[in-house]
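Researcher: Let's continue the batch. This sequence belongs to Major facilitator superfamily protein, and it's 388 residues. Same format as the previous ones, please.
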Amino acid sequence: MGNFITGAGASMSLPFLPLFISEMGHFPKWELTLFAGAAFSVTFLSQAIVSPLWGRLADRTGRKPMLMRAAIGMTITATLTGASPNVWILILLRLIQGAFSGYINNAYALMASEVPVNKSGRTMGTLTTGNVSGQLIGPIIGGYIAGIFGYRIPFYLFGGMMAIAALTTFFFVKEEFTPITNQKLAKQSAFAGIKHVRIVWAMIISSMLIQAATTSINPIISLFVKELMHQHGNIAMASGVIAALPGIATLLAAPKLGALGDQIGPRRVLIFGLIFCAAMFVPMFFVTTVIALGVFRFLVGISDAALLPITQTVMTLATPSEAISRIFSYNQSAQAIGSVVGPMLASIVAGVLDYRYVFLMTTGLVIINLIVVVWAYHKDYQEPDQAE
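Model: Same format as before. Here are the structure tokens for Major facilitator superfamily protein:
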């Protein structure tokens, strides 16, 4: 439920961030895409810096306090973002939000420490379903509301929804947590007890590259839709639908692919997802209508269901319980770095060339990711069956 609320609240406001910024001044195309990229990325920049600190604290105090910290922090910052008087204040608030965010990643860490090993894939798929279900409904509702009441209202709704997430977590989330008492263990590297370190590092790098690929379109999606629609019609609503389509596919596919990973091994599912993802990004370069863009965005959602939940599953199976929060915090930092690199690269590519070239850049990131995963498994080919 908390993942659903977080996904819905964030996606309710973020697809329209470039349009919100465009109302704050008369910016040329290159400046608008740069501001949009910065506004997206700065949240994840601060998140990447502080996540390891929160992860170490979580291994000592529990994951539930970290969930509460993230929910309350986003309640305050999201609400204030809606009241931003100019683009610089907006970027500053997004920076602060990143330092206190991380609800979804901590939810993964908490559940990874609670569920039996043989149900890890299904559990991660279910958590992802909650998140992407929110990402599915958020842009559609946000687009409808933004088209009628303006772009500030979705940010206020985001803040209100995170307040609900905080209350839900406080009253209904139970955690069986035993603090680490062995100080030597607490000071050890989080990777000390991991047998197949290359594979875990490959999953962390994969999280970064997957996030870079999937978020690269965020700063330009509403602007690209606006271009495809020739600036006619309800652009906010159309952008919301396009942003939501991958969530529909992920919602349908994530539990099934998670369970499939439990049966045949996450490695096969992950490699298939990467190949399929690259194959779906290339045609987006040639689309001339919003409908064609929507079809390929939907298909990318299927690959999303085979990527992030599977990387979470592999890390869960390979990591000792006493280090799980630290490993997941490093993973969150990697995702945050991807969310910085992807939108900023996309903003530069779109500003210098055109929106379409962003999809070619994204394809390159996915191919690099595929090479990293294949190399890591080749090097650590003698891993236990559950990590294959």
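Researcher: Any comment?
Model: The radius of gyration is 20 Å.
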